[in-house]
Amino acid sequence: MDQSTLLNNLAMALRDRYSLAGDRADLDRAISLLEKALKLAPPGHRQGLLLNNLATALTDRYARDGEPADVDYRVRLLEAALEISPEALDRPRTLTHLAAALFDRYRMHGNIDDLEHCISLSEEAVRLAVAEPERASSLSNLAVALGERYSLRSDARDLDRQVPLLEEAAALTPSGPNRARILAALGEALGSRYASRRDPGDLQRSVQLLEEALRITAAGPDRAKIVANLSTAFGQRFQTRGDPVVLDKQVELAEEAVLLTPSGPDRAQRCQSLAEALGHRYALRGDPADLDRQSELLTEAARTSGPLSMPSIATSLGRLQLDLARRAEGGERRAHLVSAVEALDAGRLTLERQMVPERTDADTTLLARYGALCDRLVDAHLQLAEAANATGEMDVDAVQRRAAFLAVERAVLWRRADSLAARPHQPDPSVAKLAPEVGRLRRELARIEQRIRAEDQDGQDAI
Length: 463
What we know:
Elements: H1 3-21, H2 24-40, H3 45-65, H4 68-84, H5 91-109, H6 112-128, H7 134-153, H8 156-171, H9 179-197, H10 200-215, H11 222-241, H12 244-259, H13 267-285, H14 288-304, H15 310-327, H16 330-354, H17 360-369, H18 371-391, H19 398-420, H20 428-432, H21 435-462
Helix pairs in contact: 1-2, 1-3, 2-3, 3-4, 3-5, 4-5, 5-6, 5-7, 6-7, 7-8, 7-9, 8-9, 9-10, 9-11, 10-11, 11-12, 12-13, 13-14, 14-15, 15-16, 15-18, 16-18, 17-19, 17-21, 18-19, 19-21
């Protein structure tokens, strides 16, 4: 057996041990060994295998550390693997891994082209994969990507495909290390379908599947995601039943998910989920410690969030700061209002960067989903102006008036899109009809901002 093969075998054993125990040193050593094995391997099919194995280990490291360079490195490795053996038997595996890397890059940067490419590659992988475990992995990847596109575009066809794909993947994986991951994805998909259609059976089955996945995942990196999804399902159950015991279970699971995610790309969303659960518990019991922790978690989440989750996190943080401002007076009230404006404006800017002119169906869904962000931004600006006048600390100068004006104009336009936009359970064609309206709103927003910039310039010229 040559040295390249020996290094590969040792590296994969270390990666398997990392998956079970989570020891960082095992994963880092596995990556180093695979890079050495790749340099020693002769050209050909063997290199394709090593490229795939190295990309798999980098997937684990990205989930642990959240370093963008690892995602770009994976994409390059897997594109090279496809070029080395474009018609090889392991093509479905390479396609699946490349699709997963593109999905991570989409979540990192929010570029919808990466998501579409991921879905296209996953569709090809499903067509080509006939044997285990490649077929189950391909089905699972495709389902998760369709779920992400559903959350962006609200196309019911994506939601309807997601659950059957994962059902097939689960049936193909009666045991083994990937079963928990697939059960968790199916549980999450059923939770999404419940949120859209409110079938109690979907929520009940979602909880059952996630609990089963958790039982067979005692430790390792996958446990955090399963715990987080189960916490979300208990949150949905609490909203339905209002049972404080269910809420306590949601908080307990969300605490564990945050503890198991000390870093990486998922920490911000898990901090937000725990913060929202603590907010519900504070409303129920009034413990100030829950409120303080909620504020700390949302502040951290806003600081570390990626572009896709930022508008939602900013909306939550802005809402909390506005609530705190209503209970405070004087300088403390003003400080909370300033924090609300800063958080909401950061969410607005991130949301606008996600919007792509030629994809107005996605734009409309985004506008509808985050109309509340704009409403709260208007509220925060106007309250801040009122507070400044009431305390006599400062006059509402031209800059403040323009900021409030821009927020009001933006909110009026966005809420018009909100009133027209399709609800999540409606099919894509109803959203597509809004394309002319969204385009017109974009042009109107551009004119408003151009007018404000002209006013700024006139003011500077006058000085």
